[in-house]
Amino acid sequence: MAPRNPATQTAYGPMVVAAAEHARPPGQRLYDDPLAVRMLPTAQRWIARSCRWDAVYRMLVAATDARAHGLWAGVLCRKRYATDQIRAALDAGIRQYVILGAGLDTSPYRLITPAGAHAWELDLPANIAVKRQRTRALPAGLVAGTTLVPIDFATDDLTGTLRAAGFAPAEPAMFVWEAVTQYLTEDAVLGTLAFLGTAAPGSRLIFTYLRADYLDGTSDYDAAPARRDFVDRQHIWRFGLDPAEITTLLRPYGWIVREHVGAQEYTSRYLAPTGRDLPVSGIERFVLAERQDATAGDSR
């Protein structure tokens, strides 16, 4: 049975978006995830597959964007960016991938294990139980290279837990922290950054964050209904950042920002080539960073 915790339930929404996009014609897709539909319960699978009909697809996009203008394309572009960066890390020879707050993400089974690398998927025990159930039907070769690790980022020892699961801290790794930080407390975010500060030189990190001015209500970004739901009522979006503070935040932990993207970059990079005319939400941004050698200076 799927978990009832509101925070764990949020894992399903992005996968519905991804699965619905896969039902569209290949040349129109912003993001292509053939495994997304297999992560969903039966009713949501039916909804996603029904998006091969334009009317159903448009209706689902409109319902999603009614909560936050541009949320549909924002989710797709975020996932596309993560896929692009994982592929780039694989091309660079990185063989260890740590998915922090994995949810129902399928990148280990689509990208990482087929390339012969290993993935550790970390999440709350309830989410890991669902993930274990959903991946049972996948080919054994895809699952064998992934280790599912239950953890509470607020209370558990991330370093010890990963080492016990076979992670080699002296080797470079890529850390994927997608759509997670907003659900954590500031202490949990800083604790995770302290762990990331021990990563081997040459490691890579990608993470998303919500804008602090959106969470505190200073700026609306045409997404007030989502803030009412997730901040005011459910109290599950708790942490945000100012884009101007990202470099300062990461530098003490040895990470150098290599790229910082959002709606504008997504539109030019992903929507324009496909001719898709969709708004992209501005409430969330994605950061790519690299772990520098302890003896190296800031290369910016």
Rough outline = globular
SSE succession: HHHHHEHEHHEHEHEHHHEHE
CATH class: Alpha Beta
Low-pLDDT runs: 295-300
Overall pLDDT: 93
Characterize the main sheet.
7 strands, mixed
> Nearest-angstrom radius of gyration?
18 Å
Q: How much helix, percentage-wise, in residues?
A: 40-55%
Question: Which structural class fits the helix and strand makeup?
Answer: alpha/beta
Gap from first CA to last CA? 49 Å
Task: Give the CATH architecture.
Answer: 3-Layer(aba) Sandwich
What is the overall number of helices? Answer: 14
Strand order of the largest sheet: 3-2-1-4-5-7-6
Task: Count up the domains.
Answer: 1
How many strand elements? Answer: 7
Could you say what the CATH topology is called?
A: Rossmann fold
Say which CATH homologous superfamily is assigned. Vaccinia Virus protein VP39
Percent of residues in beta strands: 5-15%
Structural notes for this entry:
42% of the residues lie in helices and 14% in strands. With 300 residues, the chain is of the alpha/beta class. The longest helix is centred in the N-terminal third of the chain and has 21 residues. The C terminus is likely disordered.
In a nutshell, what does this entry contain?
It is an enzyme of class 2 (transferase). With 300 residues, this protein is of the alpha/beta class. The chain has helices spanning 6-9, 12-22, 42-49, 54-65, 71-91, 107-112, 125-135, 140-143, 158-164, 186-196, 212-215, 224-233, 246-250, 263-274; strands spanning 96-100, 118-123, 146-150, 174-177, 204-210, 255-261, 284-291.
